[in-house]
Amino acid sequence: MNEHLLTILTFLPAAGALGLAFLGPKAEKGAKIGALVVSLVVLALAGVAAVSAGPLGCDYEWVGALNIRYAMSADGLALAMIVLTALLTPLCVLASWHAIHDRVKGFLINLLLLEAAVIGVFCARDLFLFYVFWEAMLIPMALLIGIWGGTRRIYASVKFFLYTMAGSVLMLVAILYLGVNCGSFDMNQLPALIASERKLPADSQQWLFLAFALAFAIKVPMFPLHTWLPDAHVEAPTAGSVMLAGVLLKMGAYGFLRIAIPFFPRAAEHYQGLFITLSVVSVIFGALMSMAQSDIKKLIAYSSVSHMGFVMLGIFSFTMQGLQGAILQMVNHGISTGALFLLVGVIYERAHCRGVDDFGGLTKVMPRYAAVFLVVTLSSIGLPGLNGFVGEFLTLLGGFLVSPWAAAVASTGVILGAVYMLNLYRGVFFGKMTSSKYEKLKDLSWLEMAYLAPLVLLIVVLGLLPMLVLHKTHATSDQIHRQMRPEVDRGR
Amino acid sequence: MDAKELLTILPALVLLAAGLLVVLVDMTAAAPNGRKAAVEWIAYLGVIGSFFCVYWQMNTAPIDAFYHSIVVDRLARFSALTVLAATLLTIVLSVDYVVARGIYLAEYVALVLLASAGMMFLAMSADLITMFLSIEILSIAIYVLCGILRRDGRANEAAIKYFVQGAFATAFLLYGMALLYGATGSVHLHKIGSVLEHGTSPLAMAGMGLMLAGFAFKIGAAPFHLWVPDVYEGAPTAVTAFMSVAVKAAAFAALVRLLHGSLDGAKATWQPVVVGLAALTMIAGNLGAVAQKSVKRMLAYSSVAHTGYALVGIAAGGESGGSSALFYLFAYTFMTLGAFAMLMFAGKDGKDGKDGKDAETFDDLAGLGKRRPYAALFMTIFMVSLAGIPPTAGFFGKFMLFQAAVLADQVPLAVLGVLLSIVGAYYYLRVVVAMWMREPVEAPVEEGAPEVAKFDFNVGVAVLVAALLTVAFGVWPSQYVNMAKNAVTDAKALVEPNR
Fold first, then answer.
1. Do B477 and A169 lie within an 8 Å CB cutoff?
2. N or C end: fewer C-beta atoms under 10 angstroms in chain B?
3. Average per-residue pLDDT for chain A
């Protein structure tokens, strides 16, 4: 079972999508139920994978002539991301239950294909396989934005597609170069091969690092490569935004942790200053841009740039605290930003607008909605006791150990975060109602409560028990940490 | 010569026989309906029979026949498989299409079969004379096919253009062969190779250059690609599909045999030229495709771009270079045939089922996802594969090509290739955008013509098969990669000194 669990996790959603394709054009309800069942089974299996003790994964020959293998495996970091993906997908299906009217079946097919590709990215242990999933993810996401998105959906979809592809094709050349020079695509062996290989000179390592880093930095996204993100987020349907912010951005940070840094530790060290600077700029720039937005969705989109800046700061501190904090922050951001996009979807579905100043006084008509929104807002700000705090604190601590100045500047991002989020909350929920037509707005329905409850629960649980995640990811962080700091290893 | 030698070229002979039989039966059969069925089934049986002949010989040792003018090795057989797959799919999707457009079926089918026999001979040819004759056999058949819509102005223009420029290119090719013969004293590829191993003369270099120009025209490589968009646009779509894949598959097989087999010793001479040719072709094809309003013309430019990608493999040389080009052409066959077939499928019927129109512009495809979701799905698969996005055969082919380039220390060529792939993604994505994200554009329906085109069963089958194979060869490419590698091994064995 353990051997095939990851394969099943990856291809079950794809098989579900294929099954949906054969349903008749009228079977919308059936398609919804089918997609929900499939995604819930995937979630259950992901849970099994997360608690199973033995090593997961398999390794078979795929294309022998080119030494390409079908190798899957998952450590704590990958499992955390897989569980996050598997959790958000059924919530997306539920959130789209009434929101999507046009071509429902196609929507669900794309959502499931997206889930399959994303889980594949986190499981793959062969660079070729990794790239296949990494690129395969583009099509369903671009279709989700382009078919079911807002008014400028085609522009946003094409921009997203080309931007991401532009980043990843150079990664393809880097993968080919590694494969040719080291004779293997095996991600478990490559770090050692690169370290021992005399054929790979130092400057080629730097180029390779930059090629990978470009692909991942676009995905994260880091300033100044973030411009696709606001467009994509704003135009995407709710489920698309949730998957985009919740999981796809994490693929970028995951790439740094899994490939760019462990493969090329010396090059990563060489560019540490650059990346820390860019991370801090992302934190501040994202926060300032959020403050200036009048569209709630755009505000949350820019806040993602800011939050992912913290993640990158933690990663490039190369300290144990920073790395652990970054991984935790990845999970937290997926939960709280996912929840925020779901909440925006709720109000947009009712009022068909989503400006910060469009509402006002919603606490009175939608008390449950206001309560959930408050918890998520506080989590996003990083209130101690909720999940956002621990991750942000650890990344800043890690950053401080390396560069106190960078940490000091970045920590102002926390304050700015409070400014724009509380501003948003005040604008929407307090004060006078802008229009009497909003007095009739319905509070959260049972369905909406059902898909928001797990996230609120996790916000509280992970705030109190961050060790649930940190314990699992300790080994991964420790490995990267030792690689970057050889003297630590010698000291023991 | 004895009867045994005839057996070695049996696959091509079967095709020739089928082609002649088609014409004969068409003259004698009485009822028009019976004629159509007879022509159709003779063609199918011919191609499938030829396929089994190839398959039966697949792993036998290379056979040298007809006084070293023909060699039947795994290169010839691998390209024969590609050509036969293209031929079979073309005939399947043409049968109703050509009848609906008032083309005489027997002539059409016979010409397609003759052309593919020529292509198989081209992949088998081991001397310059056979090579030239095979190119003429396939070219003349295709000149006629381009203009087979006699009353259509654009088709006439395409045929004349292709013929005049093609004749010019053939002259270059023949002149190059003559110079190469003068320089080396032999028309046999293995002898030419062993002479040139010890250094090239200016005469031989001029010969190689002229031959390369001739081949560049046939495969549509820049700067000899200017005929491609006009001819591809003007020719009936089924013919365009056929010529864009099958001719290339055969010509690239000949290029592998010539450059990687016979002239491998003179690699230093031809490699820079082919590198330049590949770079120029990729640039010209991709940039040309961006500006097109017509999907058919866009696909024409994109086929130039794909010639450029395949030339990267030729430029890289070595086992991985040749095999990647061969595999790419194999993968390219299905995705391109499928894409052109989709243009036929998404078209409109004319009055009384005659004079139907293909979908040509992006507007014609707009909203196809709503009208025919499965058709749009298959077209999406072809576009994704042409753009080189996994998990499709097109991606795997590109992966091999660029790996070969990196292996041959041609990293800049690989980087150029992947960067131009982004440009490619843009124009293929436009098709996807039109089909799924735009509303249908209301076009005026001709009086008396049905509003929705009849479901063309044959084209549907061809598209389905092509789409499934495009995905299948992307996920399970291993066997065909090995076949392509074996093909190159055999091509290289041509110049071993003991022969």
1. no
2. N
3. 88
